[in-house]
């Protein structure tokens, strides 16, 4: 119901939702320049190559996991569960982020991994009898621990907020195609989460995992 949505989401969230509905309301278009560093904060080519190589090593096993889940590849006996493999990747990405907090791609990928594990509806407490499909992205792990979900929600939103902040250039300033792609993915992920949140909050009895003030502080 619309009243619940408008009182639960912050003004910033509603602004994001309005921009999803009206893409033309976005700021000035991005200007691409292939000559610029692929990450505006990781300008040393050797360091950037090292980080992307490590990041690829972390997330590559997840592709095999998804193929196994889809039935395209057999799952070897004794293999860790899909949730365990994602949690391993999340832990490794967390270590990478702790060492290089301005590396936006790692934050974007950690957010994507958290979405895969907990679903796009992670910001909203699930009501009794609610179908899992209503929550958007299929979840690998169905947690009912409010503290865990609150922590995950805030980490996810902060990752996307930080990635967007790190990669957004000043108005009419150029950006590399690689940075622009990561920036676009971060916006898309956050938009998907907010859209699913708004839909779930329209269901009677639904409420945010944490307060709108906390959400504004993390995702504002």
Automatic annotation (TrEMBL):
This is Uncharacterized protein. Belongs to the TTC36 family. It comes from Hymenoscyphus fraxineus. It comes from the Eukaryota. One of its GO terms (biological process) is tyrosine metabolic process. Residues 25-36 have a biased composition (Low complexity). Residues 19-38 are annotated as: Disordered.
């Amino acid at each position: 119901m619309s009243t619940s949505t408008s009182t639960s989401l912050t003004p910033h969230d509603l602004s994001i939702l309005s921009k999803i509905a009206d893409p033309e309301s976005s700021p000035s278009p991005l200007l691409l320049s292939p000559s610029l560093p692929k990450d505006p904060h990781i300008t040393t080519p050797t360091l950037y190559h090292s980080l992307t190589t490590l990041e690829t090593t972390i997330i590559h096993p997840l592709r095999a996991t998804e193929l196994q889940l889809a039935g395209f590849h057999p799952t070897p006996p004794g293999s860790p569960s899909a949730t365990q493999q994602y949690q391993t990747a999340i832990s490794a990405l967390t270590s990478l982020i702790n060492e290089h907090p301005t590396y936006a791609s790692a934050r974007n990928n950690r957010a994507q991994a958290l979405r895969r594990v907990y679903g796009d509806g992670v910001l909203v407490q699930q009501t009794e009898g609610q179908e899992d499909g209503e929550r958007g992205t299929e979840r690998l792990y169905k947690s009912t621990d409010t503290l865990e979900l609150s922590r995950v929600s805030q980490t996810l939103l902060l990752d996307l907020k930080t990635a967007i902040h790190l990669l957004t250039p000043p108005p009419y300033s150029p950006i590399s195609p690689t940075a622009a792609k990561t920036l676009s993915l971060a916006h898309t992920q956050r938009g998907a989460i907010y859209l699913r949140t708004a839909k779930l909050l329209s269901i009677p009895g639904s409420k945010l995992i944490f307060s709108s003030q906390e959400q504004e502080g993390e995702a504002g």
